[in-house]
Specification:
Length: 130
């Protein structure tokens, strides 16, 4: 049980420090800022607040508070580098390793096939949502 808790904690710390997941920790600031705007304008819906702060941001009197909202400012994630000494040796015991089996899946749709998928991964979307 302790190993599981420790591993979850370490994975969480790793993901929060190396990705944008830390931005979700700023959600209480978003809620507090929305309530401030709601007090000034009781008719303001959440969508109008989000559009004003994310779609069409402007430098107004609360610009400093706006910059503290999640996903406004993006930080460079932490990069971890591990180096091994030259005399490092990794040995695998054959008794503990299991053979890897692969299964080919039949595909009727060319776009869903592995070959077709790889060639279209970096293409832009083919349709526009309106």
């Amino acid at each position: 049980m302790m190993k599981k808790v420790l591993s979850i904690l370490l994975i969480t710390l790793f993901l929060v420090s190396t990705t944008e997941l830390y931005q979700f920790l700023k959600l209480p600031v978003l809620a507090e800022h929305y309530l401030e705007h709601k007090a000034l304008n009781p008719d303001m819906p959440v969508t109008a607040f989000l559009i004003a702060h994310y779609s069409h941001p402007s430098k107004d009197s609360d610009y400093g508070k706006d910059q503290q909202l999640p996903f406004i400012i993006h930080a460079k994630p932490l990069h971890l580098v591990f180096t091994l000494q030259q005399d490092f040796l990794l040995t695998l015991d054959e008794k503990t390793s299991e053979p890897v089996y692969s299964h080919k899946m039949p595909c009727k749709d060319e776009d869903l096939c592995y070959k077709g998928f790889l060639s279209s991964v970096w293409e832009p979307p083919r349709f526009v949502l309106s």
